[in-house]
Amino acid sequence: METERRHRKADQDRRQRQRQTETDRDRDRDRDRQRQRETETDRDRERQRQTETETDKETETDRERERQKQRKRRRKRQRKRQTETETERDRDRETEEEAYEETERDRER
């Protein structure tokens, strides 16, 4: 009777340890999964930050490129205007000189 009771107690203790071991294992597995999810979330956030940073850099590069194009166009227009103005002055000067020369010829006659 005492032996039977000890055996039952031993079986009960063994089952209790086994349940505890399974509970511990489940808890550890859940903790590992949670850590893995957090790690993946952190990686995703870092990837997103990098993507945003790269996008910001590309956007800034694009803006700078556009500003350079605008400056180039502006300089080109200014040179063109300046050339046109100089050409008009030259024509006006030539016209004045021709008129002056014609006036001088008329006076001489």
Describe this structure in words.
- Residues 68-80 have a biased composition (Basic residues).
- Residues 10-67, 81-94 have a biased composition (Basic and acidic residues).
- Residues 1-109 are annotated as: Disordered.
- With 109 residues, this protein is mostly helical.
- 98% of the residues lie in helices and 0% in strands.
- It is built from one helix and no strands.
- It has one helix spanning 2-108.
- The protein starts with a helix and ends with a helix.
Which segments are poorly predicted (pLDDT under 50) over 5 or more consecutive residues?
none
General form: rod-shaped
- What count of helical segments does DSSP give? 1
Helix/strand class: mainly alpha
SSE order: H
* Rg over alpha carbons: 47 Å
Number of strands: 0
Q: Can you summarize the main beta sheet? A: none
What proportion strand?
A: under 5%
Average pLDDT figure = 93
The level of helicity is over 70%
Distance between the termini: 160 Å
Structural topology:
Layout: H1 2-108
What tags apply to this protein structure?
109 residues, mainly alpha, 1 helix, 98% helix, 0% strand, rod-shaped
